[in-house]
Amino acid sequence: FRFLVNNLAMSTSSVANPTFAAQSFVNKFNEDYETKHLKFEEQFWGTKMDLSSTPEVTFSAEDLTKTKNEMEDLLSDYKTVEEAKKLKESLPDSAPEELVDCLDIIIRTCECYSTAPELKEVRESTNMLESELGLKRNRMELGYKDAEGNFQKASSVGLRNVLQTNEDEAMRKAAYEGLRSIGPFICENGFVEIVKLRNKLAKSKGFIDYYDYQVTNSEGMSKQKLFEIMDGLEQGTRPIMEASLKELEKRHGADALKPWNTSFKLAGSLVQKMDPYFPFAKAPLRYCQSYSKLGITYAGSTMNLDLLERDNKYSNGFCHWPKVAWTKPDGKWQPSTANFTSLANPKTVGSGLRALTTLMHEAGHAAHFANIKQPSPLFGQERPPFSAALAEGQSMFLDSLVSDAAWRAKYARDKDDNPIPFEIIEEEIKSTHPFAVRQLRSMISVPYFEKALYELSDEELTPERIQALADEIEEKIQGGLGPRPLLSIPHIISDEASCYYHAYVLAEMSVHQNRAFFMKRDGFIVDNPKVGPDMTSNYWKYGNKKTFLDLVKDFTGSELSGDAWVAELKQSVEDMIASEKEEYEKSVKECTDEETKLDLDMVVRFVDGDTLISDSSKSPNGVLGACNEFETFVQAKISEK
Which of 177, 201, 248, 568 has its CA 20 to 30 A from that of 321? Predict the structure, then answer.
């Protein structure tokens, strides 16, 4: 098949050959998509990171919208779907399977975006409003007033860090109010109109509303089916949540239920105690060491990592791929290029653990998409019909390791290389495990909010109603206002991430199911060299060729279920301490000297906006050298006044 086109091209009868015609169509579409996708992703990265324009490229909301429209014009042309279906029907039974797969993915992808000509203006208007709101949100002056009444600038991540670590309740309340200010801001700067336009587009295509449109395209299930799953999880964990709220009040008093106090009461002193064992400067090294031991490689990928907090930078971690991994018709491998980001202020207590968890998460996305081995870039692009739950399931499985006592015994170490004492881990379990259900409830509140949001009529869609609805959902699902206001979550305003958060819930179900599988089969996960190869061969290589639910079932042998997750929530504190202590002590005994070489089969570039910090392809010690250069850069930042 790889050389089919070349062989047919030499045939005088090739023009009449349906296989040749189909392969030519596929090749042209793949080439066009790759070009337009790259231009859009360059704009996406440049505007989200607030990069300086160059003589070669200008970064702006207008150019972001233009390149996005050009990419979506290609994907939304229904003539492409008709042509692909016609070519598929004309193929002989002997046609290569990969060619049929390529036509199928073109059809599936374009059907997600195909738009009637009269609705093109709606789609383009939505794109423009989204780009403008995204830039305004990035440049919003966010922060809080300190004890002296001075305004302290802080990102949403920084504000959440204040909620978790600051001992002064007044400061925590000020930080919470800073987060609350995001809601009115986005509602007054285009979000209301965006919701209306999204619904208009979805309903014109025969969907109930925009949420139904998004989940059908990305997960292959209706909104009704999704919320049957969600309702089961919500109802099954409500008693656990109600018990946790009573326990929180019993331990810490009624004030602990106030949204600006909850995070601090649960983890404030612990964050201080844990901080020395999670130095931010070493976060990339720890991630690389851990992934290397898991047998994870990146198939020649290049990764650009922008990890530090700065003004006007997008306020959430993400991973995108300007170049998608795929196998070209001549058999040549196209490695991926990944851009991913987190926000960390290395001078802030708790930033190291938060940044490392984000790093392990986004690096999981990068590993997943770097290893997709399919004959078209459409199998490995992160937009629908790619399952968001599948994508998040891989990254969340890997970031879950950071919470394991076995992982911390090896990788959570202070400046003198001492492992975090188990006493701190035990204190954390006692302090947080009875309230672990809060994470689940916080997670499911986002899809419940967006479901209710897109069910509002245009007449009901006002800034005031949207803000009131967000509070209503928090009260109903979380049992009170949460420390992270729903309208401060960046996903809801972003095209590619709106009506997406259910994916984290489905993914978390798969995380616990996959963890249970590895533990039953191998007895351990941390530094298990089978993890990388198993994830690659059973999940990653397929891209969106197989469904999320099928992949989970095929690997674990069971249908997707929340049973393992709920079982962990129900586990007693005493049993969890005992099992984690056993894993911790075993892991401490296995610790060896740090590796002098990390073989991840990738090039990593650490950047800070326009500044290149280090490049493993130019470092004598490769990835290890680049990590060390990043550490030196961060230490210098910490030393600055």
Answer: 201
The C-alpha atoms of residue 473 and residue 489 are separated, in whole angstroms, by: 14
Q: Do 610 and 52 contact (CB within 8 A), yes or no?
A: yes
DSSP per residue, 121-156:
HHHHHHHHHHHHHHHHHHT---EEE-TTS-EEE--H
Alpha-carbon distance values, 513 to 109, 250, 293, 554, 560 (Å): 29, 33, 22, 12, 8
The predicted-structure confidence for 231-268, as pLDDT tens digits, reads as follows 989 998 999 999 999 999 999 999 999 999 999 998 76
The identity of residue 21, as a single letter, is A
**Beta carbons within 8 Å of 404's beta carbon, 6+ residues apart:** 525, 526, 580, 583
pLDDT value at residue 641: 64
Q: H-type helices in 10-60, by residue range?
A: 18-48
In a 13 Å sphere around the CA of 429, the CA atoms on its Cβ side amount to 21
Is the pLDDT score of 430 beyond 60? yes
- Residue carrying the six token digits 């495990």: 433
Encode pLDDT of 455-476 as tens digits.
999 999 999 999 999 999 999 9
Contact residues for 546 (Cβ-Cβ < 8 A; gap 6+): 554
In angstroms, rounded to a whole number, what is the distance separating the alpha carbons of residues 495 and 104?
Answer: 25
Q: Which residue in the block uniquely carries the two structure tokens 């009506």?
A: 499
DSSP states of 379-422: GG-SSTTS-HHHHHHHHHHHHGGGG-HHHHHHH-B-TT-PBPPH
- 478: DSSP letter: I
Partners of 23 in beta bridges: none
Integer Cα distance of 507 and 388 in angstroms: 8
Rounded Cα–Cα distance for residues 273 and 290 (Å) = 23
Strand partners, 302: 337, 603
| Distance (Å, whole) CA 405 – CA 288 | 18
Phi-psi label, residue 517: left if phi above 0, alpha if psi -120 to 50, beta otherwise: alpha
* Tokens, residue 11: 């045939």
* Residue 448 CB coordination number (10 Å): 22
Length reported for the chain: 641
DSSP annotation of 620 reads T
Concatenated DSSP letters of 193-213: HHHHHHHHHHHHTT-SSHHHH
Q: Is the pLDDT of residue 10 over 60?
A: no
Do the bridges between strand 301-308 and strand 611-615 make them parallel or antiparallel, or are there none, so unpaired?
unpaired
Nearest C-alpha neighbor of 537 from the set 371, 342, 391, 308 = 371
Helix (H), strand (E) counts: the chain: 26, 9
pLDDT at residue 437 is higher than 90: yes
**What is the pTM (predicted TM-score) of this model?**
0.88
